[in-house]
Write a structure and sequence with these properties.
single chain, 4 strands
């Protein structure tokens, strides 16, 4: 049995779902982050957004490394080599 039961905006208990299904329903727009759930095992009421699986699925991406403050021009030539050519 799925661990959560969704409560409709009218207050009716409806579809049962696991966390992965709730994430799919959020992405599809069937439910929103404010939707209420009942944990079937504990009978505790919570919002969808409080589930760790939902928070991880919708977390922002990690920040990227900052760009250097300088740019190397694409047409810049390399300094002349001090090594003798090898054959």
């Amino acid at each position: 049995m799925p661990p959560y039961r969704v409560i409709s905006k009218e207050g009716r208990q409806s579809a049962d779902a696991d966390a992965a299904t709730l994430v799919r329903w959020l992405r599809a727009g069937y439910i929103d982050f404010e939707a209420l759930l009942v944990d079937v095992a504990t009978v505790q009421t919570m919002q969808v957004k409080s589930l760790p699986e939902v928070q991880m699925a919708f977390a922002p991406p990690p920040p990227t490394a900052p760009r250097p403050e300088y740019e190397i021009p694409l047409d810049a030539s390399l300094p002349p080599s001090t090594e003798s050519p090898t054959r």
